[in-house]
Predict the structure.
Amino acid sequence: MPAIFKLSPLIRVTLLGLYVALTVPLPLLPQTDGVAVSPKWLWFGIGLGFIALYGALSERVIVTETEIQVTYPAWMPRILRKGWVLPWAEVKALKPRSTGQGGIVYYFLSQAEQAYLLPMRVAGFSRLVRLVQERTGIDTSDVRSLSQPWMYLTLLGLTLLLLLVDSWTIWTALSLMA
């Protein structure tokens, strides 16, 4: 039976909330500033952006006895997010790479020298890493998650604060227009 790993709910809720907090006030700004941009078009764009973000955050990692696969919902255009499949027999190594922010990500290196990013923001990451070690024989004792939960909890708290400020600002702007 395959093991399925989805993106951590904390990460998904935080990023969707941040998107809403940053974009929802935008259609109201032209009304208060007198700019001739149709709020309908802004709402349309925000809706499309939310759907695209939701699709990107719907990543699933499927681990079977024979392969690891990263998939996205069928409705998600492949041009936006492509998944991949890598048979365990093709895995040559698990290579660390530093990020621009000072973190470390890991790539599966295939026999054909292609690199596949190890999904690190899934719920149950430590279980995923254990399965990788079992299926490949590669030592994964040094593999750690890219971001700790406290980072996303902090961002979630700040997002909630921003949503509160947005709500107050929108309420104030609408009451001044009335």
